[in-house]
Amino acid sequence: MAAIAPSGEAALSNTVDVASRIDIPDASAFFDLERVASEIAFHATAWLPTTNVEMPSYRTALQLPDDLLFASDALTSSLHALHAASPHATRWRLDAFILADTQYSPCCVDEVAAEHFAANLLVHFGRSCLSRASHLPVVYAFGRWPLDVDDLVHRLEVLVASLPVNEDGTRVLVVYDVTYLHAMPAVRSLLPTATAARIVWADVALADGVTGRGYERTYLPRDTMTDTWPVVLVGPAGPFVDHASLSHALHPVWHYDPASKTWASPRSAMTRRYVAMQKARDADVIGVVVGTLGVANYIDTIAAVKRLIRASGKKYYTFVLGKLNVPKLANFMDIDCFVLVSCPESSLIESKEFYRPVVTPFELTMALDMSSEWTGDYKLAFSDVLPHMAAVTAAADAESPADRANAEPYFSLVTGELRTRSTLTNNAEVHAAIKDLVVRDAAAAMQVAMAASPAAQRLATREWTGLDTSVAREDKSLELVQGRFGNAARYEGEDGTSSK
Question: How does pLDDT run across 423-439, given as a tens digit for each residue?
Fold first, then answer.
């Protein structure tokens, strides 16, 4: 007889599908593990005075994306060998271990998983969004992904030659993925002087120029760049290109993929993001999805999003769901729109399979800002969004209830109808109103709750609202009745057999 449920043995031999897998014959050279070991020693030396244990263990978590997990054993062995051969081996032990999975996007530092295993430091391998961690020391090992330097130099020469004369100051901005940081010095050295003079690099360098503070990308001030400046994105298609192309949507954008050596203009996602923004404006109930637990300022951003929603007269619920997928969000049918608080690269959800739009904090701010128009300028970093969000919230709080009630309706580009602004009550006010009641009639109390709660209003419109509580308790049957025999595949009596 076949088993009703699987035994679970298939999970032991299951393979992980990855988009691509790079050949790494020498993991130590590919990730420059000598530098990584030196930075680990830098942090461990600063940590030693905080412990009184003789020969303490410095626990180091190694975080790798799925497409690099095959190299985890070689990385761990090499790091232990480098430490054993260093003079630090007599002062502290290196205890390196692999984080087999991440709770959120692999480009972000998973501090929570590392701290579950009492890690003192985390080493992040592969591409990164460079979002600063909250408090755990982090060492980055981007890797040396292959890049045809001569081909990229030729592409840049052709682009610069097509630009108008340099009298107007037009230059080319080059933004590269961190996995190609190692190749940029070679690219610069091969560029002709005239070409190099008209190229500006969005460089990735040590934060504040100091070892141990991570990396950051430096841009020119926006007011020094005109919309005529072309922007070249060097990296694989995916979150990096989506984020960078939106951030420079007002510029001509070119994408160079080092793997395929293709040169093309990426398809702009601005129209799709604008549609999602309009749906967020029409939403009455908004779900705040926590998409990170490690990026700096994420707590402040979540609090600011809630204040903005509350000040705009809308309702919010908070969700901590880990990695997002369609079934998770489909469980909450009463949510009109979700806002994802995550790192800049993983907050852009483009999948059409989601039943409700998923927007960024910037898009939600623009949607609820009735007094300004969107110029096309797009921001994703928390530090860029928080000031605008605070200003919109302050303006909404300054409105009196009478002003909000008498506000003119706005035209919805989604439904093609005039809509009035939401005036829903938040949870704290609903609970306060219920506590102030002297309940003499359960039905009257329910009417008060329904008037203040959109969830109760939606529940009342459903065909099935749960078990019927209006039946008197004394009329309910307490007689024990024998149930059915069998299992979900076949109960006795379903195939014509007699039931016991």
Answer: 666 666 666 665 655 55
